[in-house]
Each structure stands twice: as C-alpha cells, then as structure tokens.
Amino acid sequence: MDYHVKDEALAEKGKLRIEWAAQSMPVLRSIRERFEREKPLQGVRVAACLHVTTETAYLAQALKAGGAEIRVCASNPLSTQDDVAASLVVHDRIPVFAIKGEDKDTYYRHIHAALGHKPAITMDDGADLVSTLHSDRRDLLEGLIGGTEETTTGVIRLRSMAEKGVLRYPIIAVNDADTKHLFDNRYGTGQSTIDGIVRATNRLLAGSIFVVSGYGWCGRGVAMRAAGMGARVVVTEVDPLRALEAVMDGYQVLPMAEAAPIGDFFCTLTGDIHVIGREHFQAMKDGAIVCNSGHFNVEIDLETLASLAVSRRTIRDFVEEFRMEDGRRIYVLGEGRLINLAAAEGHPSSVMDMSFANQALCAEYMVKNAARLERRVYRVPEAIDREIARLKLESMNIAIDRLTPEQEKYLHSWEMGT
Q: In which residues is substrate bound (predicted)?
C-alpha cells in the first residue's frame, strides 16, 4: 500500500484519539452502520483532501465501511494530526499522504498521490483537488462522477469555475447545508479558534480588544466566543448587511484602519487576500497578536510584514515575533494558517458529526444520481439536511412537534383567510 505519514509508531495513540472522537459522532455512526450493511459505495474510488484529524478519520472509516476505496491527503500543511494519519494506515489500511508541517512541494505531491488511484468522487476542503484536476491532471476528469466541498472558500472558488463554464464535473456544496454552516462554521470555528489562540499564547482575553475581520458564520462564531471570554469585540466588514448585523448583535464596527491602532488580538475570517496589510501593521500597538481562521494563509500580508521587520524569531510554539524598526513587536500565530488547526485540534467532534454526515450521504447521493447530475455546484438536498438534523436531535434525546393534517393543509392552501 502506498502512503506517506510521519511515523507509524504513533498509530496506537491515534487509534485511541479516533475512538474518543467517535463517541461524540452518533449521526455518522448510524450512517456507518447502515453503510456496512448496504455497501452503497462498493468499489467507488474516493480521494479526500481534508484536514487529517480524528473526525476526518472516522469519516474515512465510514466511507470504507460503505465499500469505498479511499485515499486521504491534507488540505492544509499544518492541520495534520500525525498519530491519526498513522492509525488510518496501520489499523484501517487506508492510504494517507499527510505530515504536519509539510512544505508546499510535499503538500502538492501528496495531493497528486491521493489522485493516484483515479477517483470517481473527490472530497475537498478548499477545492485544491478540483483545481489540481483542472490544471495538472485533466486526464482524470472523464472518470469523475462528482465531488463535495466542505468550506466557504472552496465553494466560492467552485462557483466561480461554474459561472465561467470551466467546471468539468458536478460538486455538492456541503458547506451550504444548514446542518453544516449554521453549526460547524459558527460553533465549531468559534470554539476551536479561541482554543487555538489561547493554547498558542496563554494570554487573557478578558478586557482585551479583539478584532474580528469578516462577519460571516465563522466570524459570528469567533465574535460570540471572544465576547463570552470577556473581550471587547470590534468587527471589520465590507458588506453593509453583515456590518449592520454585527452592530445589532452589540459589537463595535470599524474600518480596519481604525481598528488596527486599538486591537490586542486580530483574527481574519474573510476568505479574501491581504485583509491585514502594510498600513495596518504600521499602526498596530506593541504586542499585537495577529492570526487567521480563514481557509488559506493569504488574509494576512506576511511578505509585507517580513519586509517591515528588522528581526523575526519564534518565541514559542506557533508564535512568531516580528520586531519593527521602532521597537514594536507584532506576533503572528501559526504562520498565518488556520489557527484552530495549527495550534489546536480543530472543531469539536460533536459538530463535525453533522458536517461529515453530509459528506457521507452526499457521496451516496452522487453515486445513485450520477447520470442526471450536471457540471455545476449543487446545494445539499434538503431531505439529507433535514435527516441529519433529525438524527442529531434523536441522538440528544430531544423530541419535537409534528404538524397535524389540519396544519399541513393550512400551510399548503390559499383558500383559508384570517
């Protein structure tokens, strides 16, 4: 079996950590049990470019239980949990190509390795598999029946491809499922981002000024959790509707140029490039801490920061100090990459339970409906979204009401007035 992980001796530790995560993933467990019986993915080759965490490992096990032949690579050079990667190789015989801290060349070699078995389905977290297939491995496009995309950033890229008519196979935007972005993006990113910042810095958030750049679902989650830790939250936005919502939620809204001189912590979650740049670095106070929880490490203009600095050093794990000519120090966490995965463990497994349930069920859906899917980006079918929510509530022993026949009729009629 072809694979590339850091150390197979870590496999036992990884196995226990996967088992721990699985205890909080009852929805995916129920899907896995059904997959084991029905084998809906029998013989289907899957390439998954995802964060190699305990939760991803449980998804990979579920897909294999359903009959899939799966290969896994990392969707971020710093997000791999090496013990988990080793466990998938040693205990599950799943080829994994991922090492925490891998350089850019290795990262792309691993992507090509994951595509080496000519997949029929891709699973992406940022659309790097799709972009590689459309640039360097176009020879594999004809064999693809579909793909899934986990992130906001990836969906933006894929919709752009579809609009320009260059997308060569159908993709389901898992990120757009309500059971994904309303929970994973908000509660998962919120908690895990704060977790990563605190683990990396051990600094107190209470009483600080915490600048959140981008008030999408991820930004909402981080703002909510930072405020819950006692920080005074400032939001920066370019969208007037989101900025207005942030104001109504009780946060101060400022342009980044005005937030830069007052912020103690800065976290970008926009999906765009150079959100924090030269003018902001020049205005920041001594000791400002800058990090990113958007998918790619482009939101902070690190090249410009390096050019402004007279010295730089790693002062503790995942914390790099840039000293300015005037003596000010700016600290960048996790090389500007996803801080929740670079310095912490990513989203809690109970929220990833729903996200990865979407991945598993959408893979099954594509296999069943391959003949009628067009080359465009689809939403997750509403029936899948609602079934996952139902299963999650059931696992929490929570019951809800059902419409009576009279109520159903009323909602679907126009004859009855006030």
A: 53, 125, 150, 180, 184
